[in-house]
Amino acid sequence: MPTCLDYARFLSKAAARRQPSAIREATQLFSRSPPSTISFASGSPNTSLFPFKQATITLIDGTNIELDPSAMSKALQYLPTPGLADLLEWLKKLQNYYHSPDDFKRYDLCITNGSMEGLSKVFELILNPGDPILVDSPCYSGSLDFLRGFGADIISIETDSNGMNVNHLNETLTNWATSKSLPKVLYTIPNGSNPTGASMNLARKQAIYEIAKKYNLLIIEDDPYFFLQFTKPDPSFLSMDIDGRVIRLDSMSKVLSAGMRLGFVTAPVPLWKKIVYHQQVTSMHASSLSQMVALKLFEKWNLSEFDEHTKRISKFYENQKNLMVNAINKYLKDMITFNEPTAGMFIWLKINGIDDTRKLIYEKALGQEVLLLPGSAFFVDQSKSYPFVRVSYSLCTPEQIETGMARFGKVLQEELKH
């Protein structure tokens, strides 16, 4: 039988105090009312005064999607905070298609302005300043920057080519000081991790989930590179969640458009409600226009066509990865150590014989017109020296990959002579 979690235990003080916004709740009620309902409650502007009437958007295959005057009117107006109802239904079908959670009725979805907005709200849902959170090390710099500013106690867990290290995680929790409150939450990017490119296999996820059960942790599954996997995806944390302890973040930035700022949070209903209450009083809802454009595209496609689209994307990034790996092996050879990724946009290089890569990157490499990111950006303590570099292969042409790695190879050769 599934465990019945006490979600009150996981809420931050701010989240526990959050109540629904009366105005936003009225918007949601009106959206579900019969068309004949007359509302004097709304403070929404009159869309007939807006200068936009309709739009035609041409897709990459030459076909079009249409926003007729009716769709455009909806796209220009306030929405219920969780999102456009028809788009939410489509995304729920997508979650079932890819993740088939144990009991989807225990979860709900909220569309956000990109997954980063959703992630920040999830952090604030669970953490009070000073609370511990278990994270990958190295970890996505955007998450670290938020957690530092928020005042969280960031507990770094070592990673390897399969992501978060189970032994180090277990050891950290087993030896936790009795005078300190145990962490309530674990945060990880399970596929194509930024910055390491590491992906968790099924056995690793199962082991981490068992640890989460043992210590009653929530798992924040931040998965923006899910559709950029080069082999058949292993089951997600959401798909194996029998307790309702997983909060999953998805992004359309890598598959539809980064600028549309469309992400979505899947969370157990008691936690989902608190996320919605928070969004009601901040951004109110994700862009109505972006949501309508996505809906019209998804109405044109079925799930299998969306799946084919994402497979073309993953194939492109796999080809880019292969070009980068070949260039690294050709020009960097024995000067570096790395693991070849099976998803995502990044390769994590360890520079042999160099303790700190900051000066190497920001002065010497940039002086030769090639830019990478030093590894220090992805660790909790940025004052220390780290021999790592993050390489991204997402944007560069094959010629740029070849030329850039040749330039970086010369920089390394010169540096290692001294």
UniProtKB/TrEMBL annotation:
Needed cofactors? pyridoxal 5'-phosphate
Swiss-Prot/TrEMBL GO biological process terms: alpha-amino acid metabolic process
UniProt keyword list: Aminotransferase, Pyridoxal phosphate, Transferase
Residue ranges spanning the membrane: these are: none
InterPro entries per record: Aminotransferase_I/II_large, Class-I_PLP-dep_aminotransf, PyrdxlP-dep_Trfase, PyrdxlP-dep_Trfase_major
Instruction: Report if keyword S-adenosyl-L-methionine is assigned.
Output: no
One matching Pfam family is Aminotran_1_2
Domain called Aminotransferase class I/classII large: residue spans: 58-407
- GO terms, molecular function: kynurenine-oxoglutarate transaminase activity; pyridoxal phosphate binding
Quaternary assembly? Homodimer.
Question: What is this protein's record name?
Answer: Aminotransferase class I/classII large domain-containing protein
